[in-house]
Design brief:
Residues 30-124 form the SPW repeat-containing integral membrane domain. Keywords: Membrane, Transmembrane, Transmembrane helix. It comes from Benzoatithermus flavus. The protein is an all-alpha fold. It is built from five helices and no strands. It has helices at residues 4-28, 30-48, 55-77, 81-100, 107-138. Helix 1 (4-28) crosses helix 2, helix 2 (30-48) packs antiparallel against helix 5 and helix 3 packs antiparallel against helix 4 (81-100). The termini are far apart.
Length: 139
């Protein structure tokens, strides 16, 4: 017969291991966590910065924000190098999209997407290169 206290201890130990593993992942993959947060920021930024009624930049932020956040979460849960390169390309798109989509006149949308794009692309490339370097060094 299993006592209630041993079941509580088992659950407590399992939660401790899970939390420890979660912190280990975040400490190794903090760039993916930051990109996930930036993706969420992109989704809410049209309302926060007041350009939600401007269809083109708002939809650009919403769609890319969701994709960046989902890719970041995917990289945190089951890392694949391609996820970093997807975010790098999406970041580059954010940087050039104000000119290609014609919303350079909306200062808040322009600078939001440029800055977020630079940070997302930079972190994704950094993470991909760190993995490449570790792979090369270990062979």
């Amino acid at each position: 017969m299993v006592s209630a206290s041993s079941e509580v201890h088992d659950v407590s130990a399992l939660m401790e291991v899970s939390m420890s593993n979660g912190w280990n992942v975040l400490s190794r993959q903090w760039q993916d966590a930051v990109n996930t947060v930036l993706g969420v920021w992109l989704v809410v930024s049209p309302w926060v910065l007041g350009y939600a009624t401007a269809t083109t930049p708002a939809w650009n932020a919403w769609v890319l924000g969701v994709v960046i956040a989902v890719t970041g979460i995917a990289a945190l849960t089951a890392f694949h190098r391609w996820e970093e390169w997807v975010n790098a390309v999406l970041g580059a798109w954010l940087v050039v999209s104000p000119w290609l989509l014609g919303f350079t006149g909306l200062t808040a949308a322009l600078w939001n997407q440029i800055v977020v794009g630079i940070v997302v692309a930079g972190l994704a490339i950094w993470r991909a290169m760190a993995i490449d370097g570790r792979t090369i060094a270990s062979t």
